[in-house]
Prior knowledge:
There is one protein chain. Helix content is 34%, strand content 21%. By secondary structure, the chain is an alpha/beta fold. The strands form 9 sheets. Strands 24-21-23-22-26-27-25-28 form an 8-stranded antiparallel β-sheet. A 7-stranded mixed β-sheet has the order 3-2-1-4-5-10-6, with helices on both faces. Helix 37 links the parallel strand 41 (1124-1131) and strand 42. Helix 36 (1105-1116) runs parallel beside helix 37. The longest helix is centred in the first third of the chain and has 22 residues, at 43-64. It is globular. The chain starts with a helix and ends with a strand. The protein binds flavin-adenine dinucleotide. Flavin-adenine dinucleotide binds at residues 341-348, 350-351, 361, 388, 409-411, 414-418, 420-425, 485, 489-490, 716-717, 755.
Amino acid sequence: MATLESLKRALRQKATAAAVGAKQLLSDAQYSAGYDAFTQGRGWVTYQDFIVPQLSQLLTPLVNSRVHISVLEIGPGGVSILGYLPDHLRRKIKRYTAFEPNGLFATNLEEWLRSASGETEFPLPSLETAPNIHQIPFIVEDCGENGTSIGIGLGDDDKYDVVLFCHSMYGMNPKHKFIRRALEMLVEQSQDGLVVVFHRDGLYLDGLVCHRTASFPTGEIRVVDDDEALDSFSAFIAGFTTQDEAVQAGWRDVCRSMGRHEGAPCQGKLVFSAPEIMAAFTRHATALPELTAEVPLADGDRAVKNREARFHRPAVTVRPTELRHVQYCVQWALRHDVALTVIGGSHSGHCLWPNVVAVDMSYFDQLRVVVSEEECGEDSETLILAGAGCKAGDIVRKAMEAGLTVPLGARPSVGAGLWLQGGIGHLSRLYGLACDAIVGAVMVSMTTGGIVSVGCIPSQHRPAGAVPPDAEETDLLWAMKGAGTNFGIVVSVALKAFPAPTYSVREWAVPLHDNLEARNKIAEFDKSVAGELPRNFSADAYLYWTNEMLHLGVTMFETSTTGAGSQECTPLAMTISSILGEQASFKVVNGAGVFETEMYMSGMHGGHGGGKTSSFKRCLFLKNIGEAIVASILVAAVESRPTPFCYLHLLQGGGAVRDVAAEATAFGCRDWDFACVITGVWPRNQDGTEAAIATVSWVYHVVGELLPTSCGAYGADLGPDPRDVPLIAKAFGQNLPRLARLKHGLDPRNVLAYACPLPMEPMEPKLIILVTGKSGAGKDFCAGHWASVFTNHSLKARVVSISEATKREYAATAGADLNRLLHNRAYKEEHRPSLTAFFQSQIQHRPRLLEEHFLNVVYSTADVDVLFITGMRDEAPVATLSHLVPDSRLLDVFVTASKKTRHVRRTFCDQDIGVRIKDSKDNRVGEMAEDGKTALDYSPSFVFDNETIGHGPAREYAERYLLPFFGQGLQQLTKMVRSVPDFLRLSIQFRHVLGISQHTGGLALCTSLLESHFDGDWAKVGVVACCEAGGFVYAPPLAVRVNVPLALIREAGKLPPPTVSVAKSPSHISSSGPSAPSERIEIGRDAIPSGSSVVLVDDVLATGETLCAALQLLGKVGIGTENISVMVVAEFPAHRGRERLRRQGFGMVKIQSLLVFGGA
Ligand SMILES: Cc1cc2nc3c(=O)[nH]c(=O)nc-3n(C[C@H](O)[C@H](O)[C@H](O)COP(=O)(O)OP(=O)(O)OC[C@H]3O[C@@H](n4cnc5c(N)ncnc54)[C@H](O)[C@@H]3O)c2cc1C
């Protein structure tokens, strides 16, 4: 199937060959007919699946920050795409101008914009003025052929929030000048105004850098296969018309020979490939000189290995030669809200992206062999420190000098992308994946441009100024192992080294006469060859077609660190030769020699196209390749290859790859037998042609066939191609939600937008409730009933025990029966002492084990609305854990029951054992007193007295206290909090909490929610206290509502004496200013009668500085913490305010927040 671009070339060639004299420009009617022929059929799919969603996504932040927007559209045709946007976006457009030179289109557009009938409203319903349609082309004054002016000036009224070119740039050259002109027409004060282009051919805009770009490679155009339609269509594509009938007939033939036929000849449709690209620009599009003045440009001669990437013309490629250059790139990208790509070994298709700045890391190619220090927390071991510009071959050769190696891939030229995303090679079964060997890394942060040193980097090799990551140390190292291209620009990694082996390499080539033999041979190879190999062996299989016959090729690598290979005549060797026949070759090589070994396939087809081929690969993980269904798909895949060079490469897994738990590293797919690389190959001279397109389609077709039988996908080289979406969903197994949260936190501006795409939205349950209490109190019973209350209200709820992870690990280590450990009380009791000892020893080695378990539970249940976690320790879990799930609301409910009731329940029911860190069962400080009141050393969110028999009280409790978190009121309130990116400080998503009061009814709604969500008794509250300034907005109307007097806390010096005061550090927002001195706050000494119960109200809880000072102040006027409750409108758990308050001695103060927001 030809692309429109190649069709255009062919049509023009035909006209040139026929020496067509009079080429005429298309009249409006001819243009319109051609356009109609063009847009019929499934061309709409491109709009529906790409243009409308992309445009909606781009416009959403803009409309959220504006009351209305104005749009200028260039060449919309007879109908604007804006009319197909979602309702809430269309309604924001108040002013619409268009340049549409085609008279017919312009008239249609006018009519369409005015068309509304009974049920359907106007396409743009909120226009405040009549649409302004200029029936002239949009031209740039200094390159207009006839000097026509564009007809509008540049007065304030002629500035727009959005300028849109939707398939209208075809005749505009040079295109960058038109974009520059459009940029000048954006509203001046705004930084987020957009120029958006949708275009069908490649789009390179000299000297401009785009804000975002996306592609839709599967776009297609369908044309009715009849003469009339083809005449209009071919003239439209060629860009001119002719009266020469011979040429017209020739054009029809060209269309019919190049298009794919769908339906019956001359009745059906002709299909052409029409890949689509979107590029969006802001005012920052012209900021490149600022970057290139600071960071050296790459040498134009650097060959990017990946041929697909070479089609992507970056805005520029810079080649940093100092760490500060890399930092500057990131800071520049953050400042201008643009993305970057990073070039390592340049083997992937995503290291370059059109109109995006590429950062070539090749200068950072230093390698060192070092012995790790004690500070790394490991036994002394040898590490290889590798710069991000190193290639696999460099590392192996350097390590070999010290008798060592690192498990990497099969080819020497592959770069950092391999070890950061996985790295499967001949040593994987023996030593693990390449990413498993990473023990530390130096990287440039995507939030600040600062240098971060994560994990183990020996101190003398840590760059000056490198700091540990904020709070994400464990997470970041975890993420580097499999998803490491997504969180920062990696400058170097520390890799654990292993003894270097020698390799005995054996090859076989087995011809397969028919499909049945092929399936049987695959099954035999799987079960009796690969399945029997010890872990120092690894067998790669290839399915390929040569000499008109399907073949199974096998390369077996036997590694030995003693130099001795196994004997030829072992029973296994005999079995192998009985299955695979005579060995085709045998050699013994070292690590460098393995790289030198010709790839198995390179000998095929006369040297595999003379080596002049291009390829495209995707990789799935498979188990049981011998199973009939899997083997049949594999065989059918090779049979349907579009070029003779395509093949399947199966790399053996198991061994050390499987030893690591799926959730222990970001590389979440561990339990597989083979990584199946579906390898599409075509002659290099056919790059960009139909043959290349068909081969890539074949790869995705095979992926689609195999995906249901696969147990994961390899994340390396997946990119922002819609066809990769199903693979990404399988790439990281259960780790995907955790990675999404990290991406959200560590690259919030999506600077690394073109690496393996991770979801940008956090994927956590909305409400997480920790159910705590003593053994026998009925935690599981309550959690189960509470979950069902939510389920009855159509919310997805689940109960999970956090202690399961420990039991699982214990069972694996101690050889206990996991099933009985989970479900059989007596068995559990029997193992309790050793289970407790096991947990305690684990926690000594992994101090963040509880957090890890908590996160694993949260992210394995990300699909639910409400998650109940039982089996928790009881130590102020909300204060210690909420920052880990900043986008969720985390609560704890402490379940109580009398000693007698608990004893009865323990005797007759099967209760969870819980996980306790320090104390044995009943002697903890402050657990339950017999009268049913808590005497904990912290204040849980809620306490439920589970003394009564039956589920009624538990369910009523959930209806009264837990369900309201999903109430309409809170949802309404959330919508009133406007979000403003980068306000006050770069990377801060400022939430305008005080802005609630600026909404009609906002203050009333907020105060009524503060009143109803307070779980104490207002009648017993003596005073509502509040701090200047946020508290002053919300506390007074609340105090009026509940009829309680106010106590005001103000800056020192603003209240008349007598007062008491305390020092207060600035808040995290105000501390962002240039000077942020600490200040004092004060309260009237007699403002609160002693012994009163006080509710302290504030707008925000972030770091807790303000609340902490206010609580100290209340203490100074004689109010004990047991008499204070705090209510805030919004909480930002990322700043760990609750933890600070607890550390400062305010753990007993009950804190309630109406809203919870992630981020800063
Ligand atoms: C011929 C060939 C053989 C291969 N053999 C194997 C194999 O044996 N085993 C295996 O597991 N895989 C193999 N692969 C797949 C390979 O791992 C991926 O293509 C990998 O992405 C290549 O990394 P690169 O650095 O060479 O490519 P690049 O295209 O330069 O980088 C790949 C990705 O990593 C990102 N990246 C690179 N450097 C950095 C950095 N410093 N910081 C942050 N992000 C960075 C890039 O932006 C890009 O998204 C092979 C690929 C090819 C083409």
